[in-house]
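Tokens for chain A. Residues wanted.
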């Protein structure tokens, strides 16, 4: 007769084999489920990144190409306003940074957005906030208002009228209209205390 210990050994072996079978059976299912979830998450991120090509990602890439590394730290303030009342908002960007601004102010850009393209409508130098979208329109586009200081102007506001193709590039000279009165309208880019309040585009690499 077999010793009792042999039966115990056989029982333990059968149990171990059974447990091993369960592990090998369930493991692939769990791995497949995990892999499927990761693929779904990855696809969702790709879809999200490309869903709004005229949004933050496209804008940032456009700005990075415009302002290279040697300009040091660059930040920006951004707003979306439907300037031509076509139902698609334009993008207004006010650029700030020690090496991209002068004594007269900083650059303000306006982009129109269509499908996957951002098109530069205006590059306006020597601007200071607030950047205002006026109630009045010219050639179907709302006038813009900016504060100006420098270039012969001090403590003034400039009204920029669309000429059918673009806005004036310099708010301190004609055809921009300057006055001491603040322009009525909605504030797109408000005043700020320090340029570091803006979104970071590039860090100062010290190069």
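Reply:
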């Amino acid at each position: 007769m077999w010793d009792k210990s042999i039966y115990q050994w056989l029982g333990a072996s059968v149990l171990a084999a059974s447990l091993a079978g369960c592990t090998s059976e369930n493991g692939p299912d769990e791995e497949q489920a995990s892999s499927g979830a990761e693929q779904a998450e990855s696809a969702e991120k790709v879809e999200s990144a490309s869903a709004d090509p005229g949004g933050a990602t496209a804008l940032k890439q456009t700005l990075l190409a415009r302002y290279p590394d040697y300009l040091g730290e660059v930040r920006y303030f951004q707003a979306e306003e439907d300037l031509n009342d076509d139902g698609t908002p334009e993008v207004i960007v006010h650029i700030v940074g020690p090496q991209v601004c002068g004594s007269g102010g900083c650059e303000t850009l306006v982009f129109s957005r269509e499908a996957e393209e951002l098109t530069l409508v205006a590059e306006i130098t020597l601007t200071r906030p607030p950047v205002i979208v006026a109630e009045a329109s010219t050639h179907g586009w709302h006038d813009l208002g900016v504060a100006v200081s420098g270039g012969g102007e001090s403590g003034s506001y400039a009204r920029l009228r669309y000429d059918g193709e673009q806005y004036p590039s310099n708010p301190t000279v004609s055809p921009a209209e300057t006055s001491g009165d603040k322009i009525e309208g909605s504030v797109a880019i408000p005043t700020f205390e320090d340029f570091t309040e803006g979104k970071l585009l590039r860090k100062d690499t010290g190069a």
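Residues 1-51 form one domain. Helices lie at 4-51, 56-66.
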